[in-house]
Design a protein that fits this description.
heterodimer; A: eight-stranded antiparallel barrel; 2 helices; elongated; B: 168 residues; six-stranded antiparallel β-sheet; five-stranded mixed β-sheet; 1 helix
Chain lengths: 244, 168
């Protein structure tokens, strides 16, 4: 019997006890179901994002990584933190700039999934607050004219703007499942809203580390993460039984 | 399994996201580097605009001239492009009066010294130049049709206002 079959067996068995016990309960006997205690594992999950290294490998103009961690607070709540680094060159139609910096995101996840006994998968929603510190280097740009008589002139100033920062909030939706014992695969999509952004003088940030692409038309953004993490159990806690 | 069904949905959603192409193209209506607006006035009567017949503007540095009526806003004013870039520039223009008539043709050479600064427009459009006119001088050729030049607006950010008045 594998783990899943054991679970099914266990649950059907408890179901059997439940139905039979109802018959006996009225006769003042102990309900055997009450004797089953559910113990949840609590601890820290540490991992790395695989999406960013994949992009680093596949795209010439991107380098990045992200470390993820979460810590179980209650039966359904997890404290979550992500630390990352982006180095991205944005080659737009009329400008080329490189944004480089690191970020931290912190918040919590709420598990909406009711696990089978003994399983610890998650279908979750989460909230994060992110802050980023970065630099933006304007490598080159084109000068556009009302009269194209002289053609388009391209200049390469290479101006570096340091000490830029941004803050944003995000809501995320994701899945996390135990692929191997204590090894979790996690993926989520993030919807972000920019709260604060210091643009360089006379230029703009087209990318913010952790926030990703900045649009011309709005302060919202998207993100995606695919990470693998390892669960380090710290302690177990008996789940409180539902009151009859 | 239920989880895998969710994974497929998430995967499909991501494919849709990836299919969204940005469409922020630079529109032609957005003001870019402004032309230098020259206004022609009568040298004898103050504040009276005066048309230059058969005007042609030649840039000897690039060996090219503006197309006929290229950049003209009205008969008594013309918007001419300046070479763009960063820093200080000096460019020479030759203004030919009665260009089509070999007997009356008269060419005057003008040197324009200016500063070019970059100004960010948008992600799609990139940058434009704004100019600060420093000096505009007429070369004396003993038969100048231009009598005098005057900078009236040395900071050129748009084309709403004439930058140089030319008296003839």
């Amino acid at each position: 019997m594998n783990f899943k079959q054991r679970c099914v067996f266990f649950i059907s068995l408890s179901g059997f006890f439940l139905t039979t016990s109802l018959a006996f309960a009225q006769q003042g006997k102990v309900n055997p179901y009450d004797t089953i205690t559910i113990r949840d594992r609590y601890g820290l999950r540490l991992g790395v994002d695989l999406f960013k290294p994949a992009r680093t490998f596949l795209e010439d103009d991107f380098t990045g990584f992200e470390i993820v961690a979460d810590y179980r607070l209650t039966k359904k709540h997890w404290l979550a933190v992500e630390l990352g680094y982006d180095d991205r060159t944005k080659n737009e139609d009329n400008s080329n700039s490189t944004i480089e910096g690191s970020y931290v995101k912190a918040g919590f996840d709420y598990n909406m999934h009711n696990n089978w006994l003994g399983m610890e998968n998650m279908i979750y929603v989460g909230l994060r607050v992110g802050v980023s510190s970065f630099s933006n280097t304007l490598n080159s740009f084109n000068i556009q004219s009302n009269n194209p008589f002289f053609g388009e002139v391209s200049v390469e100033p290479g101006t570096k703007f340091d000490n830029l920062s941004a803050a944003w909030g995000e809501a995320l939706f994701g899945l996390r499942f135990e692929a191997l014992p204590n090894v979790y695969v996690n993926m989520n999509i993030q919807f972000k809203g920019l709260l604060n952004n210091t643009d360089p003088p006379n230029f703009k940030n087209f990318h913010i580390p952790g926030f990703n692409e900045v649009n011309d038309f709005g302060d919202f953004g998207f993100g995606f993460s695919y990470s693998v993490s390892y669960f380090i159990p710290f302690y177990e806690r008996t789940r409180e039984k539902a009151k009859k | 399994m239920r989880l895998y069904r969710y994974l497929i949905f998430v995967g499909l959603f991501l494919c849709l996201l990836g299919a969204c192409e940005r469409d922020d193209l630079c529109s032609a209506g957005i003001p870019k580097t402004p032309n230098l607006v020259l206004r022609f006035l009568d040298a004898n009567i103050t504040n009276d605009f005066k048309i230059v017949p058969g005007l042609r503007v030649v840039y000897p540095e690039v060996n090219d001239s503006l197309p006929a009526n290229g950049g003209t806003f009205a008969n008594d004013s013309i918007g001419i492009p300046l070479p763009t870039g960063l820093g200080e520039f000096t460019t020479t223009i030759v203004m030919v009066k009665d260009a089509a008539n070999a007997n009356l043709r008269n060419s005057d050479t003008v040197d324009i010294r200016y500063l070019a600064q970059e100004v960010f427009i948008s992600k799609a459009c990139g940058f434009k130049n704004e100019f600060i006119l420093q000096q505009i001088t007429l070369r004396n050729d003993n038969d100048n049709w231009i009598r005098n030049l005057l900078i009236t607006n040395d900071t050129i950010q748009n084309e709403f206002q004439a930058a140089v008045r030319i008296f003839h």
